[in-house]
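Quick one:
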Amino acid sequence: MSPKTILPGVASALCPSPSGQYLVVAVRRDLFLWQLSSGALLRHLRGCHFQSVTSIRFSQDGCHLVTASEDGGVSAWTLLDLVALGAKGRSSSSDPTPREKWNDHQLKVTGLLLSGSGCSVRIFSCSLDGSVKVCIVFSCSLESKPF
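Output:
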């Protein structure tokens, strides 16, 4: 990323990947993904939520990205899908879609916390509606055994 990058609006959220290799910035409903070592804009995803993005978080291993918004929505993405070759910073009909998406909150999501990595990521979200939700996503299809 160059020392100064002009965004098309005010950034409402940003989050670097745990490795420091990527940076995701939200401007209104859009997400921008940069590779920090080269400064290259890898993705511009338009209209990821119905209202402005309020929070962005990576999983501990950096494989998953979660976004939340003013519309009460939470979306979970796989970083590999976002960094797919050939993106070159353009939005297209082949843009990735979230692996999981839900609207369990009635008002703006004000916070996100991710716990775990790999096959089991827990997403905690809180909202102005006074609720806290916990979702488990990115489950691997492994045989479960009772304890």
